[in-house]
Amino acid sequence: MPKKARELSATEVRRLTHAVSKTTGKEYNGLHPVGGVSGLLLQVTPSGAKSWIYRTTVAGKRRNIGVGGFPDVTLTQAREKARELRDKIADGIDPVADRQATKRALMAARLSTVTFADAMADYIKMKSKEFRNPRQEQQWTNSLTTYALPHIGKVPVREIELTHIKAVLDPIWQEKTETANRVRARMENILGWCAIHGYRSNDNPAKWQGYLDEIYPSPEKIKKKGHYAALSVDEMPKFMKALKKRTGTAAQALEFLILTAARTNEVIGDKRIRKAGVTWQEIDLKRKVWTVPADRMKSGKEHRVPLTNAAVDLLKGMGEGAPDQLIFPGPKGDLPSNNFLSALLKRMDQPITAHGFRSTFKDWAREYTAYADEVSELALAHINSDATRAAYARSELIDKRRQLMGDWEQYCNHGKAQKAGNVLSIGGGVA
User: Quick check: pTM over 0.85?
Assistant: First the structure.
């Protein structure tokens, strides 16, 4: 029969330390019998951490069962827990297996009560680390809060079926198709994430391919195209002439935007998220190139823009500033408001948007030039997955784009080239 350990007092337990090898001096975990219950030990690590272990035998196998940390679990409590474990084993119950079963039951109960609102919050929090634009998190939250939560917010995700998804989408699929499709895709992502984490096991009722496409008409066939209001190509020279008569930073920014076919936020930034627009360090006047940083591009990739002579003259006329200085600041020298350019267009009595000039540029490239479509697509920094266009994108076609932008400048300032009564396409050939 093993020697019965002396019952230590709480004071003696507090004084126990880790073990040290007498031969090598190496420190290691110390295991100290504390008495009161056979097999109850206090483990002390070299770092000073202390925890209770109940060493026993279950079904012929030695088991070390954790009883808790010291001093959170006192000596008295540790002895009580050890006695409870001893009694369970005597009754034929494996305490470890019993504890694991209880843990699984608690986990199953938790999984069964996770609602769509709970899952949505967790998913968006996780996904927000990937969002390039801080507004995306708010857009996800707003759309799902408005359209999904009223119908399925309190429903456990394991119970969500097609009828729930239809309750969300039926009222908005025809009237707000684009929004409805975004909400559908977001619900699909969240429910897919729930399946991966074990919150649900059945099929995803929000998926489109082979499921909802059998219930709803395709968004592409019913959605109303929301193009930005754009100036017609024929009106461009007249507009440019009127714009050049304007003074002020907004007029200069708009002219630069037109000559580069750039997006508004690439030129003036986005005050809503405190993202700056073009600065002098991005401009190489000698090489006539504007390098837009990746974090300001929709594609997430750095974009080089060849600058026309008129664009270079415009910049030189403003006087080069410090590298990090905004080229087109607001009235107070800081980031301009997001309606900086739209306010100018309103003052010019033009019912169009600044972004619409990209459409005007694209229409001109198609109608009045013979440049390959890929050249104007690269000028617009459009993202294409097609293999051929991807090859064009890798080469950047900077020289061809420089010619294209030069012809665009010529058209904006002087209109269509004429010869012997025929209209010549600026990129070559007869229009």
Answer: no
